Amino acid sequence: SQQGEEDPQALSIQEGENATMNCSYKTSINNLQWYRQNSGRGLVHLILIRSNEREKHSGRLRVTLDTSKKSSSLLITASRAADTASYFCAPSTGANSKLTFGKGITLSVRP
Amino acid sequence: GAVVSQHPSWVICKSGTSVKIECRSLDFQATTMFWYRQFPKQSLMLMATSNEGSKATYEQGVEKDKFLINHASLTLSTLTVTSAHPEDSSFYICSATPGTGYAGELFFGEGSRLTVL
Predict the structure, then answer these.
(1) Which among B31, B46, B102 has CB closest to A98?
(2) Per the CB < 8 Å rule, is B111 touching A42?
(3) Greatest extent of chain A over all pairs of C-alpha atoms, in Å
(4) Which terminus of chain A is more solvent-facing, meaning fewer CB atoms within 10 Å of its CB: N or C?
């Protein structure tokens, strides 16, 4: 398995602003997933984008995938204080494959 | 759907004792579960892959005799930290995937915080 590398390591924005987080990976994937972790809690699956998809939306989340650049981005629009958390990307080779995680992005949304 | 429950949420034990952590998939069957540990302000480290009915597959550097994993049913995996020492204090998180109909999304328990005195 491979882990993604998230960028930036930390991001601080004002409530209402958009937050853009980036992820790069090294080898071919079946899909790429984004997860959120609130402090002291388990991870929550946010969104999955398949290798043949370029963009996907879910509520205030928009994820893009560029397989030629081996990169993905997660956009959270109209951020809220409750979005404050760590965010991780996870490249996946498909069902039942193990996922490894990088250092993640610490997002702070100021009220 | 796809709920994973982990128990206990936190546990404090004395050095030298063993601690068992349970991970249950509540509304789906999981042939595969994964165990992670996380140190403060660090990422998750994959410890092992738990396979129902067979031996767990451990990641390099993880002591299999120290961290015993049992996956006796399609809805339950357990992690036993044997002869725990203070350096085993950590946040342990399990995850599972429903498999069929999913593309590999993991559903995580809420984690178990172990403190070894």
Answers:
(1) B46
(2) yes
(3) 39
(4) C
